[in-house]
Amino acid sequence: DVKVTQSSRYLVxxxxxxxxxxxxxxxxxxxxxxxxxxxxxxxxxxxxSYDVKMKEKGDIPEGYSVSREKKxxxxxxxxxxxxxxxxxxxxxxxxxGFGTSGGQYFGPGTRLTVT
Amino acid sequence: xxxxxxxxxxxxxxxxxxNITCSHNNIATNDYITWYQQFPSQGPRFIIQGYxxxxxxxxxxLFIPADRKSSTLSLPRVSLSDTAVYYCLKGGxxxxxIWGLGTSLAVNP
Lengths: 115, 109
Hints:
The structure holds two protein chains of two kinds.
Chain A: E1 4-6, E2 10-13, E3 19-25, E4 31-38, E5 42-51, E6 54-57, E7 64-70, E8 73-78, E9 87-94, E10 105-106, E11 110-114
Parallel strand pairs in A: 2-11
Antiparallel strand pairs in A: 1-3, 3-8, 4-5, 4-9, 5-6, 7-8, 9-10, 9-11
Chain B: E1 4-5, E2 9-13, E3 18-24, E4 31-38, E5 45-50, E6 53-56, E7 61-64, E8 70-75, E9 84-92, E10 97-99, E11 103-108
Parallel strand pairs in B: 2-11
Antiparallel strand pairs in B: 1-3, 3-8, 4-5, 4-9, 6-7, 7-8, 9-10, 9-11
């Protein structure tokens, strides 16, 4: 089974802090994704990566950056955390394609609270 | 604006068949439809994926008509453990993913 792990299940940070969320997948998937999930808004794509060192903005990239130095690892960075970034963050990976070939595999999520 | 629309909530009883329909306008030639299930405090889990006509696996069926402007996830004989939120996703190799807002399914005894 594909396993996607995220570094923390719960995280509490202060406004202005730099926050790192880490994601690791163990199935040699090409594509990795970062989403945030908020009540009533569903899943919104922040960034995705289709190869090492390659990244593209999703629908809501403002206030975030990403890093993919190794194929199995995709990091989401909040340069200066703000309270409106309090959310559930979900990482996912997929073999090929962006909606094809067996779908995306999700991690358990990180619930980030910014105070 | 490309959208994926699904009912906010549905109720059912154990043993019934449940059908959840998703409408997706402006579907592109290379778009697939994928359905996910999500339990509280977990990430979504892949259920089924299709392009057109009918796909069936061990947990669900997916019906996509010829015009591909909608899709129906069919869950046969639901149980209490099928209570979850179900998401429809339209996407393809054009790197544009359109998620529905989710359908909260409650299965009652």
